[in-house]
């Protein structure tokens, strides 16, 4: 049967596969392979008649649970609904795997069990694996536990993605043809066209195109400016002057006879003091040896204007005001730090002791669970009257503070202590919990850190 499951896929040509009754195939698998079954149908509404036929064909002495799933159900709610339908009035821990809870309860009653789930695409990978393990463990323990689930192709894709978890534990079945499906079937592969990627990421692509357009525009502007530097320069008199030709002409520095200097640049520049005679070499040498002294210019100090006096007074006042504000802000921050320290001292009245549970065995009473340590004062006053312990665990991937009683040697002693709790604690519906389960939760929390 397992070899057939690995080799048969589904074909797009319906004539290539012999259609048989899906109900007959389910009965055959449950009788011989006894694996969990996941019936796949593209049209989920058509799975309802198959599930109704299966339930109608169960014997009267068969213990059955039927649940139509929805995205609003979490793992704990689904476990509770399954066990409550199978064993009304029995105590169980909803945080323990179905593979453990259902097997332990079925060993007491020795009754055949059938679990039927619709809309299995809403099952988490954790619960899908628990149900597959439940069928495998029941088969080894010679217990009759039938697991039949109905869902869309999305449920099969989840199994195909994690096929190593469901090997020889779960059988995939086509609701239309009644044939077995392998995890490599075409129905479990993404067949979305390439343009869907563009449709899903249109905003990111639009932003990328906009940035590329801006970059191209900036580069074009830089190129235009660089081209303009190579063109001729137009002077204020609207005459075209070539910068290259102007710089190529000779430039000379001429010294006048009285020590004054002026620059002469070709014929196009007007020469200052044109009546002066050009300096002879001896005068040039004399100017270099005996340069003219540098005369320092004294700046006359003017009396301050009224506007300057008012500006200076305003600046001093602003500086004083800023100093006062800084002192006030420092005092306020110190007061806030003192207040927050006092509040944390009042609220942080519980001590987490994970090692206490590792050194003990038996049962405890779970009193309450909180997200933080800011607990109501009335609850803390009631908690101070009894012996209690605190540990940390994870719930929905978030840390949780759990408050329990001290460890009792056996379950009957813990139940007796439960009945003696104060009414305010009994109103929170405390319940008995094994210490081994708490140690597993603590280990899971520590590994996540």
Topology diagram in text:
Layout: H1 2-7, H2 22-32, E1 36-40, H3 47-56, E2 63-68, H4 75-86, H5 98-109, E3 113-118, H6 125-140, E4 145-151, H7 153-161, E5 170-174, E6 180-181, H8 195-200, H9 202-229, E7 233-234, E8 240-241, H10 243-248, E9 251-255, E10 261-265, H11 281-289, H12 306-347, H13 355-358, E11 363-370, H14 377-383, E12 388-395, E13 398-405, H15 411-419, H16 423-426, E14 431-434, H17 435-448
Helix pairs in contact: 5-6
CATH architectural grouping of one domain = 3-Layer(aba) Sandwich
**How would you describe the shape?**
flat
Q: What's the total count of β strands?
A: 14
Amount of beta strand: 15-25%
Secondary-structure-derived class: alpha/beta
CATH superfamily caption of one domain: P-loop containing nucleotide triphosphate hydrolases
Strand order of the largest sheet: 2-3-4-1-5-6
How large is the radius of gyration? Answer: 45 Å
Distance, first to last CA:
43 Å
User: What is the CATH topology assignment of one domain?
Assistant: Rossmann fold
CATH structural class of one domain: Alpha Beta
- Main sheet attributes: strand count, strand direction, barrel closure: 6 strands, mixed
Poorly predicted residue ranges: 1-15, 254-275, 338-348
List keywords for this structure.
single chain, 449 residues, alpha/beta, Rossmann fold, Alpha-Beta Plaits, six-stranded mixed beta sheet, four-stranded antiparallel beta sheet, 17 helices, 14 strands, 16% strand, flat, disordered N terminus
């Amino acid at each position: 049967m397992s070899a057939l499951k690995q080799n048969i896929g589904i074909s797009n040509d319906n004539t290539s596969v012999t259609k048989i009754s899906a109900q007959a195939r389910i009965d055959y698998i449950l009788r011989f392979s006894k694996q969990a079954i996941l019936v796949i149908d593209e049209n989920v509404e058509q799975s309802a008649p198959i599930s109704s036929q299966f339930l109608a064909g169960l014997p009267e002495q068969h213990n059955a649970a039927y649940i139509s799933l929805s995205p609003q159900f979490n793992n704990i709610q689904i476990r509770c609904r399954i066990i409550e339908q199978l064993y009304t009035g029995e105590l169980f821990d909803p945080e323990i795997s179905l593979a453990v809870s259902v097997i332990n309860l079925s060993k007491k009653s020795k009754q055949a069990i059938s679990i039927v789930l619709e809309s299995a695409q809403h099952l988490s990978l954790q619960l899908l694996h628990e149900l597959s393990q439940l069928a495998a463990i029941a088969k080894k323990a010679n217990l009759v536990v039938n697991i039949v689930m109905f869902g869309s192709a999305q449920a099969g894709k989840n199994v195909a993605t994690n096929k190593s978890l469901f090997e020889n534990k779960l059988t995939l079945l086509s609701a239309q043809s009644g044939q077995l499906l392998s995890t490599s079937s075409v129905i479990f592969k993404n067949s979305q066209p390439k343009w869907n990627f563009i449709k899903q990421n249109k905003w990111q692509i639009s932003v990328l195109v906009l940035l590329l357009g801006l970059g191209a525009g900036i580069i074009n502007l830089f190129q235009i400016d660089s081209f303009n530097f190579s063109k001729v320069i137009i002077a204020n008199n609207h005459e075209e002057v070539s910068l290259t030709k102007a710089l190529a002409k000779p430039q000379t520095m001429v010294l006048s006879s009285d020590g004054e200097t002026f620059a002469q640049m070709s014929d196009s520049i007007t020469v200052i003091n044109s009546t002066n005679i050009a300096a002879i070499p001896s005068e040039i040498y004399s100017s270099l040896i005996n340069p003219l002294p540098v005369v320092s210019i004294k700046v006359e100090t003017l009396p301050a204007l009224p506007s300057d006096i008012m500006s200076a007074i305003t600046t001093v006042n602003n500086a004083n005001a800023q100093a006062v504000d800084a002192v006030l802000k420092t005092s306020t921050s110190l007061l806030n730090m003192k207040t927050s320290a006092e509040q944390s001292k009042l609220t942080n009245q519980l001590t987490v002791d994970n090692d206490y549970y590792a050194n003990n065995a038996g049962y405890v009473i779970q009193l309450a669970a909180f997200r933080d340590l800011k607990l109501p004062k009335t609850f803390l006053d009631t908690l101070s009257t009894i012996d209690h312990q605190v540990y940390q665990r994870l719930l929905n991937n978030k840390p949780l503070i759990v408050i329990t009683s001290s460890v009792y040697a056996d379950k009957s002693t813990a139940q007796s202590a439960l009945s003696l709790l104060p009414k305010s604690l009994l109103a929170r519906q405390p319940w008995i919990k094994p210490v081994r389960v708490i140690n597993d939760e603590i280990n899971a929390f520590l590994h996540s850190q």
